[in-house]
Amino acid sequence: MSGAGGFARTPKPPYYAVIFTSHLSEADAGYAAMGETMFALALAQPGCLGAETARGDDRLGITVSYWADEASILAWKAEAQHVAAQKHGIARWYDHYELRVARVERAYSGPEGRDLG
């Protein structure tokens, strides 16, 4: 589910991406532990193909999780521990967030094996 350098290893498209961009508040006690728990829990869900995450010094973070289908995404959204984490995030940890769901139609990797000529 994860490859070199933290990149998710995904199958040939199509599949889905859930893109969660957030800005952490200063009151982030407990966030890191919950984030690690949710990342591991998401990867264990049926239909999860992998995930990638990063957070900068400016407290802006992006997590992209990849899913086989929309039903798997909806099951993850409704998973009890995830619901509890969402409530904590809204109440305590996030100044703002955006969540987007997209269907991946094409995917490329490289630079090895990538001929642009």
Features:
alpha+beta; 117 residues; four-stranded antiparallel beta sheet
Structural features, described:
The longest helix has 14 residues, at 80-93. Strand 2 (48-55) and strand 3 form a beta hairpin. Helix 1 runs antiparallel to helix 3 (80-93). 31% of the residues lie in helices and 32% in strands. It has a four-stranded antiparallel beta sheet. With 117 residues, the protein is an alpha+beta fold.
Low confidence ranges:
none
Biggest β-sheet strands, sense, barrel: 4 strands, antiparallel
- Portion of residues in beta strands equals 25-35%
**Spatial gap, N to C terminus:** 31 Å
Overall mean pLDDT stands at 91
Total number of β-strand segments? 4
Structural class: alpha+beta
Helix content: 25-40%
Q: Order of strands across the widest beta sheet? A: 2-3-1-4
Radius of gyration: 15 Å
Shape descriptor: globular
Order of helices and strands: EHEEHHE
Number of helices: 3
Summarize the entry for a quick read:
The chain has 117 residues and is of the alpha+beta class. The chain has helices at residues 31-43, 70-78, 80-93, and strands at residues 15-24, 48-55, 60-67, 94-104. It is globular, with a radius of gyration of 15 Å.
Topology:
Layout: E1 15-24, H1 31-43, E2 48-55, E3 60-67, H2 70-78, H3 80-93, E4 94-104
Antiparallel strand pairs: 1-3, 1-4, 2-3
Helix pairs in contact: 1-3
